[in-house]
Design brief:
- Helix content is 77%, strand content 6%.
- By secondary structure, it is mainly α.
- Helix 2 packs antiparallel against helix 3.
- Mean pLDDT is 74; it is low at 1-18, 51-56 and 181-189.
- It comes from Trichuris suis (pig whipworm).
- Keywords: Membrane, Transmembrane, Transmembrane helix.
- This is MARVEL domain-containing protein.
Length: 201
């Protein structure tokens, strides 16, 4: 076995050792992300159960499931201290920052604006179509907008919290991954210098 191979194996063993403080912090952030995903999914399911009033149903349910899956990956990565899972979790957090969270904010903000104008999006479960209904338009059912507005504001709040969690988790994940490689490189460099010094004497 070459000298650096033993160092690599030692480094891999240290990664599977009891988790450090940063790993425990990442695990806590991932658990919070799972909770946010459950809340987001529940808000989307609440629209599904209320008379077809669904201004952000499909997006809320999809986003909630995505947050739950990414949080679960983060929990597994923080618990096992595996670089591959940490990279996967950081990538999913970046996707949430760039795609999922902005889509939730835009969609829910538009829904709140429609509710303030006395309009709402009505989706039919039979025809799988959605249309915008306002007061005086055909098909107006006078559904209460207050509950829909509360759910949309809840989705905006969860999106903001998820943005902060995903940003913190992505930074911490990349810090842990880069730190492990930097530690391994420094150990190999020190061992190479000591071996060179011994061989020259």
């Amino acid at each position: 076995m070459l000298p650096y191979e033993s160092l690599i194996s030692d480094s891999q063993k240290s990664l599977t050792a009891p988790c450090t403080r940063n790993h425990r912090l990442l695990q806590a952030l991932s658990q919070c992300q799972v909770v946010i995903g459950v809340i987001c999914w529940a808000l989307g399911a609440l629209y599904l159960l209320r008379q077809g009033l669904m201004s952000g149903l499909s997006l809320a349910i999809f986003s909630g499931l995505y947050f739950i899956i990414s949080g679960s990956v983060g929990i597994c990565g923080a618990a096992s201290c595996r670089r591959a899972l940490l990279v996967a979790y950081a990538t999913m957090c970046l996707h949430a920052l760039v795609l999922v969270v902005p889509a939730m904010l835009v969609y829910s903000s538009l829904a709140v604006h429609f509710h303030e104008d006395g309009c709402y999006v009505y989706c039919s479960h039979l025809t799988w179509t959605c249309k915008l209904l306002c007061q005086g338009s055909p098909g107006w059912q006078g559904l209460p907008q207050s509950k829909g507005r509360v759910v949309d504001i809840g989705l905006i709040t969860t999106a903001v919290v998820e943005f902060l969690l995903a940003l913190s988790s992505a930074i911490l994940s990349f810090h842990l991954v880069c730190g492990s490689y930097r530690c391994l490189g420094s150990r190999i460099g020190k061992h190479a210098k000591s071996s060179l010094a011994i061989s020259t004497t």
